[in-house]
Amino acid sequence: MMDTRVGIFAGEDPFVIARRWLAEAEGREISDPNAMALATVDPDGMPDVRVVLLKEIEPAGFVFYTNLESAKARQLDSGGNAAFVIHWKTLRRQIRVRGPVERVGDAMADAYFRSRPRESRVGAWASPQSRPIASRGALEAEVARLDAELGADPPRPPFWGGFRIRPLEMEFWADGAHRLHDRYKWSRPALDADFDVIRLGP
């Protein structure tokens, strides 16, 4: 029997569905509706996961930003693939994504960095992300030093930028009564191929 996607699952473009779900979450989640758990693998094959903020859903990818010398960035650059999940408790929905990763261009990273509050830009310069620091006081002292040095419009540090995940797989999940959840998986064999859509068991 043909399974017709309706309601919150309606549509032929999974990126459009993802943007629609995120827009709904932005009106209901208490904080950080764009928070996603990003999974990577280190060179020894050990998995790693942390929460980052999704900043844009493009027509063909999901974009976030970070310190390019951080553990996550090193793992993204060396592994070339990543996965993430966004779970919205208020909506009782989640999206899972897997696929290759690429860095965004300098112009795009510059534009986003300029949109951040000045304090966050100074903090990006000051933080040796994922690496040991002597103390909270030492970090705050570095922030104070750079605050005086960088001026009114701090530029993007050369070690800070963005990544784009281009999905080979996207799964949309919605909570169902008696744990009979609704799940649809969009998958394609290559980035230039069309997605196939199947319903998955709960």
UniProtKB/TrEMBL annotation:
<dbReference type="InterPro" id="IPR000659">
    <property type="entry name" value="Pyridox_Oxase"/>
</dbReference>
<keyword id="KW-0560">Oxidoreductase</keyword>
<feature type="domain" description="Pyridoxamine 5'-phosphate oxidase N-terminal">
    <location>
        <begin position="29"/>
        <end position="146"/>
    </location>
</feature>
<feature type="binding site">
    <location>
        <position position="72"/>
    </location>
    <ligand>
        <name>FMN</name>
    </ligand>
</feature>
<dbReference type="GO" id="GO:0004733">
    <property type="term" value="F:pyridoxamine phosphate oxidase activity"/>
</dbReference>
<comment type="pathway">
    <text>Cofactor metabolism; pyridoxal 5'-phosphate salvage; pyridoxal 5'-phosphate from pyridoxine 5'-phosphate: step 1/1.</text>
</comment>
<feature type="domain" description="Pyridoxine 5'-phosphate oxidase dimerisation C-terminal">
    <location>
        <begin position="160"/>
        <end position="202"/>
    </location>
</feature>
<keyword id="KW-0288">FMN</keyword>
<dbReference type="InterPro" id="IPR011576">
    <property type="entry name" value="Pyridox_Oxase_N"/>
</dbReference>
<feature type="binding site">
    <location>
        <begin position="65"/>
        <end position="66"/>
    </location>
    <ligand>
        <name>FMN</name>
    </ligand>
</feature>
<dbReference type="InterPro" id="IPR012349">
    <property type="entry name" value="Split_barrel_FMN-bd"/>
</dbReference>
<dbReference type="InterPro" id="IPR019740">
    <property type="entry name" value="Pyridox_Oxase_CS"/>
</dbReference>
<dbReference type="Pfam" id="PF01243">
    <property type="entry name" value="PNPOx_N"/>
</dbReference>
<feature type="binding site">
    <location>
        <position position="112"/>
    </location>
    <ligand>
        <name>substrate</name>
    </ligand>
</feature>
<feature type="binding site">
    <location>
        <begin position="50"/>
        <end position="55"/>
    </location>
    <ligand>
        <name>FMN</name>
    </ligand>
</feature>
<feature type="binding site">
    <location>
        <position position="173"/>
    </location>
    <ligand>
        <name>FMN</name>
    </ligand>
</feature>
<feature type="binding site">
    <location>
        <position position="94"/>
    </location>
    <ligand>
        <name>FMN</name>
    </ligand>
</feature>
<dbReference type="Pfam" id="PF10590">
    <property type="entry name" value="PNP_phzG_C"/>
</dbReference>
<comment type="function">
    <text>Catalyzes the oxidation of either pyridoxine 5'-phosphate (PNP) or pyridoxamine 5'-phosphate (PMP) into pyridoxal 5'-phosphate (PLP).</text>
</comment>
<feature type="binding site">
    <location>
        <position position="183"/>
    </location>
    <ligand>
        <name>FMN</name>
    </ligand>
</feature>
<dbReference type="GO" id="GO:0010181">
    <property type="term" value="F:FMN binding"/>
</dbReference>
<feature type="binding site">
    <location>
        <position position="116"/>
    </location>
    <ligand>
        <name>substrate</name>
    </ligand>
</feature>
<keyword id="KW-0664">Pyridoxine biosynthesis</keyword>
<dbReference type="GO" id="GO:0008615">
    <property type="term" value="P:pyridoxine biosynthetic process"/>
</dbReference>
<feature type="binding site">
    <location>
        <position position="120"/>
    </location>
    <ligand>
        <name>substrate</name>
    </ligand>
</feature>
<feature type="binding site">
    <location>
        <begin position="179"/>
        <end position="181"/>
    </location>
    <ligand>
        <name>substrate</name>
    </ligand>
</feature>
<keyword id="KW-0285">Flavoprotein</keyword>
<comment type="similarity">
    <text>Belongs to the pyridoxamine 5'-phosphate oxidase family.</text>
</comment>
<comment type="subunit">
    <text>Homodimer.</text>
</comment>
<protein>
    <recommendedName>
        <fullName>Pyridoxine/pyridoxamine 5'-phosphate oxidase</fullName>
        <ecNumber>1.4.3.5</ecNumber>
    </recommendedName>
</protein>
<feature type="binding site">
    <location>
        <begin position="129"/>
        <end position="130"/>
    </location>
    <ligand>
        <name>FMN</name>
    </ligand>
</feature>
<dbReference type="InterPro" id="IPR019576">
    <property type="entry name" value="Pyridoxamine_oxidase_dimer_C"/>
</dbReference>
<feature type="binding site">
    <location>
        <position position="55"/>
    </location>
    <ligand>
        <name>substrate</name>
    </ligand>
</feature>
<comment type="pathway">
    <text>Cofactor metabolism; pyridoxal 5'-phosphate salvage; pyridoxal 5'-phosphate from pyridoxamine 5'-phosphate: step 1/1.</text>
</comment>
